[in-house]
Write a structure and sequence with these properties.
280 residues; alpha/beta; seven-stranded parallel beta sheet; 9 helices; 7 strands; globular
Length: 280
């Protein structure tokens, strides 16, 4: 988190520079040593809606008061549980701003800033940082998934990380995107000093273990994306002797948390009969 500002403005998208963060100067190396520690549990919070399908910020603040009573390391905002594809950019930013106001000092706010284009992702990432995000969670662009090979994804994430004022966490959620971030791309991107980790929601423990093994020489943090394979992920950490392994737990939150009084904006959105956040 403290190191990221060194690279702002280095890529063409950030203001016309010609260098990239891959060319590590001594200051880059020193900054990379101050990586954001993501170890801990981060519930991916839901976005409540009113009966008119507007974002219910009052309910959101009530939920946050309940989350704050649980010793989580932080919160993931605008992940898959947050229904971010169905929010406007203004709503996405305002939700993060609301969470930052209510989140106690010392708790990490990780905000989803992924969009389909690199330029839009850079712009939203900067806005998320401006309203208080400690890190951004950047999902794989997927509309043209047939063209999203390792080369294209490395270029996309590199430009976002070059421009981001805060650390970047890669986000692979193939159940939603139909696209899994290739392992060779993860390995190369793990060398970028402003990319601090990967949230892998695919559930393939063998792949998670291989990712941990192949990135063990980097200060790179592998995050399991669901409580369903939390224990297995910890076992992989032990077997691979990885320095970092964090797990999300979406289903361990109090049952009284309000998800949405009505159906929300998804065609098949959360049911009012189940008020607990579900794993991403």
């Amino acid at each position: 988190m403290l190191c990221a500002r060194v690279w702002r403005g280095l890529s063409p998208l950030c203001g016309g520079g010609h260098l990239t963060a891959w060319r590590r100067t001594q200051s880059h190396t020193a900054a990379a040593a101050a990586r954001l520690d993501l170890s801990g549990i981060y519930p991916p919070i839901a976005t409540p809606f009113t009966a008119k399908e507007d974002v219910d910020y009052r309910r959101l603040e009530e939920n946050l008061q309940k989350y704050n009573k649980i010793p989580f390391k932080g919160l993931v905002v605008q992940g898959s549980n947050g229904e971010y594809p169905y929010l406007t950019e203004e709503e996405r930013v305002e939700v993060v701003r609301t969470v930052r106001r209510s989140l106690p000092a010392g708790k990490v706010l990780m905000a989803g800033s992924g969009c389909e284009s690199t330029g839009a992702t850079v712009q939203l990432t900067e806005k998320m940082a401006a309203v208080g995000a400690d890190a951004v969670l950047v999902v794989t662009p997927c509309f043209y998934k047939g063209k999203m090979d390792s080369r294209a994804l490395i270029q996309h994430f590199t430009k976002v990380a070059d421009c981001s004022p805060v650390p970047v966490v890669l986000y692979s959620v193939p159940a939603n995107t139909g696209l899994e971030l290739p392992l060779d791309a993860v390995v190369q991107l793990s060398q970028h000093p402003n990319i601090v980790g990967l949230k892998d929601s695919g559930g393939d423990i063998t792949r998670i273990g291989l990712t941990v093994h192949k990135t063990k020489t980097q200060d790179f943090q592998v995050l399991a994306g669901s409580a369903g394979f939390l224990m297995a992920a910890y076992c992989v950490q032990s077997a691979a002797c990885a320095r970092w392994l964090t797990c999300w737990a979406g289903s361990c939150v109090s049952w009284s948390v309000c998800v949405c009084p009505v159906a929300g904006r998804k065609p098949e959105s959360c049911s009012s009969a189940s008020s607990s956040p579900t794993p991403p």
